[in-house]
């Protein structure tokens, strides 16, 4: 069995995950433990923008031959080895910096580690593609992903469990030494047949970009790629400061990471099942909804911080992440021209990263201004574009009134849900009830216009249930009150929308 799977790619996956761990979960946890402000922690995440532009230098890494090392290892492994050795040095330097007194030094090293990590990714992606002369591509990909998850979750969990006894400077030294050991995998792995060295040049970058403009609905595709994972990216960098402020220990985080590792496989399997059973478009839509909902669960964790909630919410969130990632990567495959696979994949990945990384740079300011609870609700708003565009794909990307009304109904439902969960000062009872009445009346009217004849009764029942569920969630949060009068106002508004719908339909029949 093991002969069919390249075990060296397990170690390559671990190596690829470590730069993201060092500049992500580990960094935000370490800096919050040291007492840095959330705004300063958030700004450091902007260093991740470096990897978002790796498509600019990927053609050169695929062409430039490193003297001496190229003759011994070949192009891919020589760049891999150099990046791993430099990462070891950079992480070791990180262990000798005081984040309180040398914030600029931390920022410079984060930029350097991110840049070196992107070089490792470029070389490793190309090496994995060309390694298929020894092993099937599917086996290479699955083994690599397992290694990546082992590095980010299992190894990360082990590190968190030891943070009290070892302290972070020692942990960073351990990671630096680990990079040195992982570089041995590069040295002893097989040399591949690097066929496309002569064709790799900056001209390919321009040709790949030019090819993208030939695609139908390019602007919509680019918007979808940019916003599909943006809410998750923004939330992720504030997750570990949240855990720290709530008092979760390193052992708690280690248990969470173990659950996340298991949940990854559930999410990937679920995505494959739904995509194969229904369609890729359905998978994208379900993934967008799943991400939005699980983002909101972190508000519940903030209100009820205990180990059970930490494990359960992260387990569900990781399933959502794995599901959305699998669907998204499958979608990218359908967009990429095989003549420009590496470059177009890098362009799309960069587009996915840039908006989220820019926004998460200011996530600390938002938390300090509005608290964690409202921050996670705000992340839900950022997930709305992905839900709407993916639903448009489900509807066959057809521009017509029916699809427009259905998308408007979905938008209104999500906005009402999120506004109802925000922790805001409540206004006077009279105005509040009028707002409830007219909001649900408008949603019912628009939804009925968009629905089929046999679905209208179901829509009314679902809207009434929706209003009841929201009131229950408000009571559960303890930040807003559960009010029977709100349920009555919501229900009356729903029936008011139904009345307006029949009135308008009868009027249209008379004039036609």
Short recap of the structure:
Keywords: Membrane, Transmembrane, Transmembrane helix, Transport. The protein has 512 residues and is mainly α.
Summarize the structure in words.
The protein has helices spanning 8-23, 25-33, 38-44, 58-61, 69-73, 75-94, 103-130, 137-161, 163-166, 168-188, 202-212, 218-227, 230-245, 250-277, 280-303, 307-335, 341-360, 363-382, 384-394, 401-421, 429-450, 456-477, 484-511. 44% of the residues are buried. With 512 residues, the protein is mainly alpha-helical. The model has no long low-confidence stretch (mean pLDDT 85).
Question: Any descriptors?
Answer:
transmembrane helix; transmembrane; Growth Hormone, Chain: A; 3 domains; mainly alpha; AmpG_permease/AT-1; 512 residues; 23 helices; single chain
Number of helices: 23
CATH architecture of the largest domain, by name, is Up-down Bundle
Total count of domains: 3
Structural class: mainly alpha
Query: What is the strand content?
Result: under 5%
CATH fold description of the largest domain: Growth Hormone, Chain: A
Low-confidence stretches: none
Classified by CATH, the class of the largest domain is: Mainly Alpha
Membrane topology: Multi-pass membrane protein
GO cellular component, one term: membrane
Subcellular location: Membrane
Keywords: Membrane, Transmembrane, Transmembrane helix, Transport
Would you spell out the secondary-structure blueprint of this structure?
Blueprint: H1 8-23, H2 25-33, H3 38-44, H4 58-61, H5 69-73, H6 75-94, H7 103-130, H8 137-161, H9 163-166, H10 168-188, H11 202-212, H12 218-227, H13 230-245, H14 250-277, H15 280-303, H16 307-335, H17 341-360, H18 363-382, H19 384-394, H20 401-421, H21 429-450, H22 456-477, H23 484-511
Helix pairs in contact: 1-2, 1-7, 1-8, 1-10, 2-13, 3-18, 6-7, 6-10, 8-14, 12-17, 12-19, 13-15, 13-17, 13-18, 14-15, 14-16, 15-16, 15-18, 15-19, 18-20, 19-20, 20-21, 21-22, 21-23, 22-23
